[in-house]
């Protein structure tokens, strides 16, 4: 599912215009990004949670040239799936 698909689905299910649905989706995504930038934890019950994880610097290797390179420390968002979502997905595949 793409962002455009999500916007279209919201517009169809709620009966609002595509422009209003796009505003809602963009507002939600922007709020999530801002929260992660503040290093807040995001928890959506039944779906999952987002948290930033810190990774130390390390020496990597360029696969094309074999050259050793330094990879800087970084912070990346991590998603942990919620119990209800995990169970719902596993019911479908069983």
Question: What's the layout of helices and strands?
Answer:
Blueprint: H1 3-14, H2 18-37, E1 42-44, E2 48-55, E3 58-61, E4 68-71, E5 74-81, H3 83-93
Helix pairs in contact: 1-2
Keywords:
46% helix, elongated, 5 strands, 94 residues, 3-stranded antiparallel β-sheet, 2 domains, alpha+beta
Write up what this structure looks like.
It is a single chain. With 94 residues, this protein is of the alpha+beta class. It has 2 domains: 40 residues; 45 residues, no CATH class. Helices cover 46% and strands 29% of the residues. It contains 3 helices and 5 strands. The strands form 2 sheets. A 3-stranded antiparallel β-sheet has the order 1-2-5. A hairpin with a 3-residue loop joins β1 and β2. α1 crosses α2. It is elongated and about 55 Å long. The model has no long low-confidence stretch (mean pLDDT 95).
Mean pLDDT score: 95
Work out the strand percent.
25-35%
Proportion of helical residues: 40-55%
Major β-sheet strand ordering: 1-2-5
Number of spatially distinct domains: 2
Oligomer classification: single chain
Counting helices, strands and paired strands, the structural category is alpha+beta
- Shape assignment: elongated
Low-confidence stretches: none
Order of helices and strands: HHEEEEEH
Q: Helical stretch count?
A: 3
Sheet bearing the most strands, described?
3 strands, antiparallel
Termini gap:
22 Å
Number of strands: 5
**What is the gyration radius calculated from CA atoms?**
19 Å
């Amino acid at each position: 599912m793409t962002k455009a698909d999500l916007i279209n689905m919201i517009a169809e299910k709620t009966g609002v215009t595509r422009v209003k649905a796009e505003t809602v989706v963009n507002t939600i995504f922007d709020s999530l990004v801002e929260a992660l930038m503040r290093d807040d934890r995001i928890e959506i019950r039944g779906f999952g949670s987002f948290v930033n994880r810190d990774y130390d610097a390390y020496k990597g290797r360029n696969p094309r040239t074999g050259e050793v390179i330094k990879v800087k420390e970084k912070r990346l968002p991590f998603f942990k799936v919620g119990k209800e979502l995990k169970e719902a997905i596993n019911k479908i595949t069983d």
